[in-house]
């Protein structure tokens, strides 16, 4: 069935493409955060272990919301490691850094996700896609606040 919600097909495709990059960044950040949750050590272990769990739990919900928005726009959501690696601006961590370096990498990753989300805003605005604009604003608030809180731990 055709989608007739008031957003032209080309605009829906453009928004979904941007959201696919956001999904890839968010999933890569989820994986990185979960990895650090499992592997953090040192004097800040308990606080970082618990905080990383809060973060990856929030990201698990976020990736579902982003993927469902892509589907609501009529496009397939990427869902493989290969697709995420191709679309993401965040590099995976193949080693286990020290706790402070973990925090530093997560600050950079949250900032990268915020940049990706911010880059999709004008595309959603051009398509009069208020739902996506709201989703993006919510994601920006989470990632900017999280980056600030993490940054404050190592300032």
UniProtKB/TrEMBL annotation:
Domain Ferritin/DPS as annotated: residue spans: 17-154
UniProt-listed InterPro entries: DPS_DNA-bd, DPS_DNA-bd_CS, Ferritin-like, Ferritin-like_SF, Ferritin_DPS_dom
Gene3D superfamilies the record matches: 1.20.1260.10
Pfam (any one): Ferritin
Leader sequence residues: none
Highest taxon in the source lineage: Bacteria
GO MF term (any one): oxidoreductase activity, acting on metal ions
Protein family: Belongs to the Dps family.
Entry protein name: DNA starvation/stationary phase protection protein
């Amino acid at each position: 069935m055709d989608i007739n919600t008031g957003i032209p097909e080309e605009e829906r495709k453009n928004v979904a493409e941007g959201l696919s990059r956001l999904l890839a960044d968010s999933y890569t950040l989820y994986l990185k955060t979960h990895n650090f949750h499992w592997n953090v050590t040192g004097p800040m272990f308990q606080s970082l272990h618990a905080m990383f769990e809060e973060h990856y739990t929030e990201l698990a919900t976020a990736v579902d919301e982003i993927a469902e928005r892509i589907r609501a726009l009529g496009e397939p959501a990427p869902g493989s490691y290969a697709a995420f690696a191709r679309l993401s601006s965040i590099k995976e961590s193949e080693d286990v850094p020290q706790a402070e370096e973990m925090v530093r990498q997560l600050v950079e990753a949250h900032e990268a996700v915020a940049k990706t989300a911010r880059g999709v805003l004008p595309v959603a605005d051009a398509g009069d896609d208020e739902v996506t604009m709201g989703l993006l604003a919510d994601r920006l608030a989470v990632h900017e606040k999280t980056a600030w809180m993490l940054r404050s731990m190592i300032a």
